[in-house]
Amino acid sequence: MNNLATVYSSLGRYSDAEEICLKVLEIRKNIFGEEHPDITNSYNNLAEIYLSQGKYIEAEKYYDLALSLRKQLLGENHPDVAFSLNNLSTLYAAIKRYEEALSYRIQASHIHDKLISNVFAFSSENDRLAFIDKIRGNFDLFLSLIYQYLPNSQEAINSAFDFILKRKGLSATSLTAQNQASYNGKYPHLADKFHQLRELSNQIIHLTISASQTQNLANYQTNLNQLQNQYDNLQKQIATQVPEIQLSKQIPNREAVASALSANSVLIEFVQIDVFDFQAIRAKGEIQWRSPFYIAFILPAGKPHAVQMVDLGEVEKIDELISKFRLQASDVNSQTLGFKKSIPVKPKLQIKQYNPSDSIQLSKLILAPILEKIDNNCQKIIFAADGNLNSVPLQILPIDETGKRLLMDEYTVSYLGVGRDILRSNSDFTTVTDNPIIIADPDFELSAPLQTEQQKQHFNKEFIDTFDSQNLHRTISTKLLGETVAKKLKDAQLYTGKEALETHLTNGKCPKIMLIATHGLFLPDTEQVANPMMRSALALAGTKTWLSGGILPENAGKGIVFAQDIANLNLRANQLTVLSACNTARGDIKIGEGVFGLRRAFAVAGTKALVMSLWEVPDRTSALLMEQFFDNYQAGMDAIEALRKAQKYIRNITVKELRESTLGVEILKELLKLRELSAQTQIDCHQDDKPLAHPFYWGAWVCQN
């Protein structure tokens, strides 16, 4: 009968639904008496029917009855009590009792804090992600209430920010805790289980990439599911014994975050929410769920009670501008960038200016409203993005009408997954750091005999075909970069060519500084490879051999390192990792949970600072940028400032300056399509021209710190 009432309600037959619910309530009282959990469900169902019609007095009566009885029967902290509190909050928002509505939402959120800890205590990562999806609606409702009806209440805005700090990016935080617990020595009795977990992860990786299209491995998916189930079950066993995974010891608040921010800095926390109109009446056909919006919360250093909330506008409009901006900024079309030769004797360098029109419009929407509220003495901005804002290097957006003055010209800019990450501490255990390592210019074709055709079919064809289409090739610039940086870093170990192996990353060592200069690979979503951490990778020595079905030397691993591999490493003492490769910051974007790919993997593994790119970058120019970056870093700058200075250097470098360095000459040869460029070669251009001013050359780089 309850199901029938639900159907009637969905069809707008509210009188029929009400009649059935009243009958069910009467039957339940006759069977169970006045005090039983099923009675509370009937009260709630009746209240829902009345709320849908705008009959608020009747709805409040039955919501109150449900809440009171649930507290009596189930206790103050039961999930059903939170459900009732949220329902009453929705009702109070509908009748404009906003402060009461917020109070009930906050009470419900405290119950959910405990529920999250309990669920995470017995769950795998997949279970956690599914649970986060399940409670996502409460996140949207909480923020919708404040965004629409309490935008001028400082207390409400503070509460919203506290709520975001507790909810955003939960799965990554829990997975990071699992990784840390597996290496910190606090749980020696779980050492075998952690080892088994890593072994199962490796088996899943190898099975994923060895999927066959032939009938003799038709049970591939069954085998993969069995391994995944074993992995999930082991994660659950570990979670029950590691409080950090349950997040029970992590209670972030804005006071702690504000105190951790350095002087003259500000945290900008972005959120994407689906907006709910509490005052829309469903029975009248009024739309309750509106288009999603982006909102920014501003937390100044040392001022926890001065959080500001900024409405940035509809997601659809902003995301459209993001796509246009990325196309403009990452334009790799040689004709668009305008480099060609006019006559063989005197090659001509033609430079097409960057058109910043879309970036100006994007900046007006997402930066201008924020900058208006930032103190004049602010020098550093830390962004914690959400949604497609994760794909924007915000520091290169213009902050004037001409498009020439950029955010990075006025502020130092860095990125976090979520604001509470600034509190992350690794002081509870010490990891011995190893010498810096540099992996550059891998030889993608290691000498090895080919497998038979039958053996070669034992690879995931779609997986390999997609990666194989990346047209992997060696470039002189990555070798030059590796050799140059190796000279700058004391005791650095340089691995190039056939020695640029995966095993140097996965050998259990934790280098203080790490540079990987190669090709980054990113595979869009595909049914055959569901795990996004298996669709982001770095190509190392032997990658082409592996892709073609060849046999690699035992010490070469599989020739390619996936984000999933990285997430299993211990990089807690790693101070800096630089990925001088294309698309290393890309991945699957999950609202509220960040980017699933290499950037998530290195964060989970514990890297303090990660420098990476948001689109395909030119090899030779990137090598010069990285050379400058390490010069700055060695001079005492932190990674954020070192990157900022390096980007400015590339943006402003002249033809004359390019001709004065080895890498600069290589860049000019590439731009002019020349095999040789001597000191006597004349170029048809001005010596003070800036051929790399287009953000394609330098704008993709960001620092996650």
Automatic annotation (TrEMBL):
It holds the Pfam family TPR_12. The keyword Cell division does not apply. Residues 210-237 form a coiled coil. PROSITE patterns: TPR (PS50005). SUPFAM superfamilies: TPR-like. Keywords: Coiled coil, Plasmid, Repeat, TPR repeat. Residues 361-703 form the CHAT domain. Gene3D superfamilies: Tetratricopeptide repeat domain. It comes from the Bacteria. TPR repeats lie at residues 40-73. It comes from Calothrix parasitica NIES-267. This is CHAT domain-containing protein.
